[in-house]
């Protein structure tokens, strides 16, 4: 009996569980479908990466001897959904059973569960923590904090461990990783890849079908196969990892990448595995090629945050993306889609996102995320925006980062405090403020930085919830010491700014 083996566009790993379960005579099913390219309006670069990588992965499987039934997006027989293609191929090959690896989104898990044919969804063991392990760790805990989970994962994997103790005597070297960066023309840049014939064919298709989506399709220079992804990994380890740690929180107008790895697109679609990426960083430290705080900081992003985010997503269930603990309902303003803004930090972060489908974690957290939280924007709209615009965005990792970490919409499940700041933090960690229309040192009046006004407006809106929080509550003492007239001016000017923004004025 022939089985159908489903491989999704973010499961492009030869060691994927469904493929390991396949037998001789089974048929690999891969399909480019409109349901997956349009459930949000993905950045054209993301669509191009996934479709190209899928086509190349399918060819790799054929060369390895597998029978692959592949449906292109423009195939006239295409049913344009994953369940539809499985049913069509089941009839074609007289197959009764379907084997899949569990998808990374509740939406697709439910779609496969609702199939009229049985679909066996195997646990996705590319990750370093199973659902059961995370659930066991989380059970009966008053707080779910990444740091404690991260230590568990360090012990499990042995990464950066010296016996039972962390290398260097500390688990976390984040204190050493908060330096601002200066422009450097000689800073290594990530490898670029010229489109080959397969990529160009996909680019033409994406331009035709999705050219109106937010984001620049061209130039397209991402890797689209495992060999290219490995080149990016090797380049990062050899040229950028050593300085990644100190400067990982820095932001520069004319340097979108700095020392960041740009590996998340390849990790999240399956071209690289988290274990091999973490091991490469650990090996570089062990060989004396990189400093410990850089290796640890990088590994923590994958072994800690990435695994923790996945754990939260599956622990909390399908309704997680609808949470709105702060009761924020303002519509996402047009500046997130490239409308003119006088705020230099947001203009550059959004412009970079449009150009590259990429922004690093501090730009996402402390620029676009910080502003959305301060302004009281509906977290569901913020979540959808992040899912649409970034090349590495898949719901299992994007939603907890947005709903939990960035927007505090889960009420503190992911983060112990809202990640909000005035303009001072942005000025300290970037060069955005130097040429901004607004003055970061001006607190009220003409030219006052909107982040300064909105910071206090946010805290006062949520004082009942936040004033007893040990990580942010002290700010209220500063507010209470302010002159009454100054406090009135701050809140009045914050409201005026938000009203202008809501009215569609350039702010």
- The rounded distance between the terminal residues' Cα atoms is 64 Å
Q: Can you give the mean pLDDT?
A: 97
| Elements, N to C (H/E) | EHEHHEHEHEHHEEHHHHHHHHHHHHHHH
Number of helices: 22
**Structural class determined from secondary elements:** mainly alpha
Largest sheet: 5 strands, parallel
Extended strand count:
7
**Which radius of gyration do the C-alpha atoms yield?**
24 Å
Unreliable parts: none
The order of strands across the largest sheet is 3-2-1-4-5
- Label the overall shape: globular
Share in helix: 40-55%
Strand content: 5-15%
Outline the structure in words.
This protein is mainly α. 49% of the residues lie in helices and 5% in strands. The protein contains 22 helices and seven strands. Helix 3 (44-63) packs antiparallel against helix 8 (197-210), helix 7 crosses helix 13 and helix 15 crosses helix 19.
In short:
By secondary structure, the protein is mostly helical. The chain is built from 22 helices and 7 strands.
Write the layout of secondary structure elements.
Elements: E1 3-6, H1 17-20, E2 27-31, H2 34-38, H3 44-63, E3 67-71, H4 82-93, E4 97-101, H5 106-113, E5 119-122, H6 131-138, H7 146-157, E6 161-162, E7 165-166, H8 197-210, H9 226-239, H10 241-247, H11 264-269, H12 274-286, H13 292-316, H14 344-356, H15 361-375, H16 379-389, H17 395-406, H18 423-429, H19 450-461, H20 463-466, H21 475-481, H22 484-502
Parallel strand pairs: 1-2, 1-4, 2-3, 4-5
Antiparallel strand pairs: 6-7
């Amino acid at each position: 009996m022939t089985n159908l083996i489903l491989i999704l566009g973010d499961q492009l790993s030869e060691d994927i569980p469904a493929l390991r379960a396949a037998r001789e005579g089974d048929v690999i099913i891969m399909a480019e479908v409109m349901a997956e390219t349009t459930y949000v309006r993905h950045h054209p670069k993301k669509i191009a990466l996934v479709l190209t990588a899928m086509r190349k992965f399918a060819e790799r499987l054929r060369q390895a001897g597998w029978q692959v039934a592949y449906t292109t997006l423009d195939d006239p027989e295409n049913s344009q959904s994953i369940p539809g293609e499985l049913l069509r191929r089941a009839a074609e090959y007289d197959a009764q059973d379907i084997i899949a690896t569990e998808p990374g989104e509740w939406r697709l898990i439910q779609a496969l569960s609702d199939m009229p044919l049985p679909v066996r969804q195997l646990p996705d063991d590319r990750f370093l923590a199973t659902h059961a392990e995370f659930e066991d760790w989380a059970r009966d805990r008053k707080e779910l904090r990444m740091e404690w989970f991260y230590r568990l994962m360090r012990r499990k994997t042995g990464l950066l461990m010296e016996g039972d103790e962390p290398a260097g005597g500390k688990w976390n070297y984040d204190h050493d990783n908060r330096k601002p960066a200066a422009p450097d023309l000689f800073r290594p840049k990530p490898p670029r890849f010229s489109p080959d014939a397969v990529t160009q064919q996909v680019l033409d298709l994406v331009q035709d079908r999705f050219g109106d989506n937010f984001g620049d399709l061209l130039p397209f220079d991402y890797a689209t196969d495992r060999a290219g992804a490995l080149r990016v990994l090797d380049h990062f380890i050899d040229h950028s990892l050593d300085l990644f740690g100190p400067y990982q929180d820095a932001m520069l107008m004319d340097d979108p990448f700095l020392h960041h790895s740009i590996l998340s697109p390849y990790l999240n679609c399956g071209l690289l595995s988290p274990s091999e990426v973490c091991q490469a960083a650990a090996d570089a430290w062990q060989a004396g090629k990189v400093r410990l705080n850089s290796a640890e900081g990088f590994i923590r992003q994958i072994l800690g945050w990435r695994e923790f985010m996945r754990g939260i997503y599956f622990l909390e269930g399908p309704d997680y993306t609808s949470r709105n603990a702060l009761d924020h309902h303002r519509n996402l303003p047009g500046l997130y889609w490239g409308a003119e803004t006088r705020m230099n930090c947001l203009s550059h972060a959004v412009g970079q996102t449009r150009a590259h489908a990429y922004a690093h974690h501090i730009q996402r957290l402390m620029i676009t995320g910080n502003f959305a939280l301060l302004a009281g924007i509906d977290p569901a709209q913020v979540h959808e925006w992040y899912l649409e615009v970034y090349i590495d965005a898949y719901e299992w990792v994007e939603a907890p980062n947005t709903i939990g970490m960035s927007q505090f919409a889960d009420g503190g499940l992911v983060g112990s405090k809202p990640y909000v700041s005035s303009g001072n933090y942005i000025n300290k960690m970037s060069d955005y403020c130097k040429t901004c229309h607004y003055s970061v040192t001006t607190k009220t009046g003409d030219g006052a930085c909107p982040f300064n006004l909105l910071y206090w407006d946010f805290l006062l809106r949520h004082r009942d919830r936040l004033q007893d929080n040990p990580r942010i509550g002290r700010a209220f003492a500063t507010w209470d010491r302010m002159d009454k007239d100054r406090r009135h001016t701050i809140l009045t000017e914050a409201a005026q700014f938000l009203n202008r923004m809501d009215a569609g004025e350039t702010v």
